[in-house]
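REVIEWER CHECKLIST
Item 1: Sequence provided? yes
Item 2: Single chain? yes
Item 3: Sequence as submitted:
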Amino acid sequence: MEIDSIWFKTHLPDSLWDGDGDGFSAWEDPSEIEDKGMTAFMRFTPGIDPPTDADRYRLLTGFGMSGHYIGYMRDDNDPADKRMLLSSGPISMADQDTVVIVAAVICAGFHHPGHTGADSLHLIRRDNLAQFIYDMNWLIPGPPPSPSVSAIPGDKMVTLIWDDAPEYYPDPYYEITSNPNSPLYDTLYVERDFQGYKVYKSLTGLPSDWVLLDQCDLVDTVDTVVLIDTTSPESVRTQPLNTGLFHSYVDNTVRNGFTYYYAVTSYDLNAVVRVGSTHAWFSFESGKEAVAAAPRREAANYLPPTCSIVKINIPECASHSIDVTIPIPLDVDENLYSLKFYRPTCDTLPNSYRPVYWYDLSCGSKEIRPKTGLLLEFGDSTRIGFPIVDGVEIGLGVKLSEFYNDYAFESFEVISGDYPVESLTPHRTLTIHRNRWAFTGADYRVEWQATGDGMTAKVTDLNTGEKIPYKPFNHLNESLKQDAWSWCFLDRMTTAGVPSQYLQDSLQAYFHITGGFFAFLPSRMPLPARLFPRAGDEWIVYSRRVGIVPYDCEYQILSNPARFLRDTMLSLNVKVVPNPYILENEWQQSQFQRELKFINLPDRCKIRIFTVAGDLIKTITHEETYQRTNDAGGDEWWDIVTDKGELPASGVYLFHIDSDVGEQVGKFALILGRYR
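Item 4: Structure as written out by the authors:
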């Protein structure tokens, strides 16, 4: 065919598939080259092989050895050593013309000899699918693209960073599977099927030399039970473990001066219909695109960037934490990052009472992650990796403790007043999930106040200092589940319980505070003998020590860029490696690529090399620009060629380092051997 069907499928309606732009679609246009298809199928035994080109051509056209036209020979069930010839033609070809011949090998299930119907039906289905895939210009399931990767050298380390573009890549095959009129229509096939990343390393960059360093995947319901690639070695097997995604990796198993190759691939997970109505999970991985880096030391006068963390309303017992890394030191600027958490809400799905923790991440006025909800159940954990911004990468980890019983509060303290603390008792309610989402793990101050409507309370969160609002909440009322972030009195723990803001004499009182309940005014005491709180009484309600969830709090990260000392004289410690330089050394790739390295240099300096007689043979200007992929740092290579383009003799040489922050004189030896 003359058309690129993928382009037309994604850019034009079916009625406008016009390969040569003449206004007629491909199937209506006589100028389009038709597919010949198979025009003959012949079969013969070795004893009657066609001996000449004329005989062979006659078979290709569908004529038998007897000279009679057959075209398509029928099935032959007799076992024997036979040849089968599939032909397509005739084709008119001029000199230098080419033609593409495409053949499909189609297989289907076989049950047992003599079984009819099912096997043939499956074979026909496979044949139809093969033809459809060809007609769609080989549009079949494939992996998401590999991310864009940078390899940043450091001192005995290489840092890899990559973008998140594969995570938003739509699978083109979805256009077929989502079409109800397509023979490949599949309701389980998803459009955005990205699942995770794999990080590889190689000493050579050759296809057979890659070693898997690490892998990560989305936190979801996919695990090794759903997807396990048993066709690959254990060392490179795809293993979804719900690790959470990361977009950088630090390799510390490297040696300075040696070149290493890295690749980061992405892989997906999707479902495809098997024969019948069952589905099979499959995963495709993108290709390896190598990047190289040679680790080296930093400049002698280099001061790395720093990040300091300020915590606001984040206690020591928090169930969340952040980690801050600097994968791209040279990109760091003076910035203030803010990771802020807001008041949680309850999942809006019917009959779901999981907490949703809201957060956003910004850098100054730049929004890194807009306000987003994190859906997490008690007992679960997750890690969120944010995009690298100005060289800084922030990761958030949350681990919510499981409740081994259903008490929200564990103890009480009467600060003022004579109310007996033993009358305050935790109440089992956390198994009733409508209120559980609002539990924070914080402690509360209850201050009693008298009003014309009766005794009421002021409830303060001791972690944030915020006042908890009153709302008429009943934990057994489905329509009120979003109101659990509140306080109220309740006269009974049933659906008939009446929430109130005021304490009445007739109440058998329960106190609800953000997801937890405790009882007071015990019902076993006769009403006249009951003790009531008085105005000015103050209590402290202590939550169970299971870690405070992320809410109404903030992490601030202040970053400061790297810099170089300019006004301080340093005691330089420049060295030459290897010393002595011997031609057959470990990092020498060839006898014709001679190199040694000066290390621990300042970022700007002059290197002068002399013979022991004092003759200057080489001057090297070292100036570290500190671009992201620059592998110089505090190192500088010398190709062991003089300024005159000559190879120096074996022997001892002197070097002099001249810089703004100090000077140094040293020596090294060259042993060049017979290859000079």
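Item 5: Key structural point noted by reviewer: Helices lie at 5-11, 53-60, 118-135, 174-177, 433-436.
Item 6: Recommendation: ____
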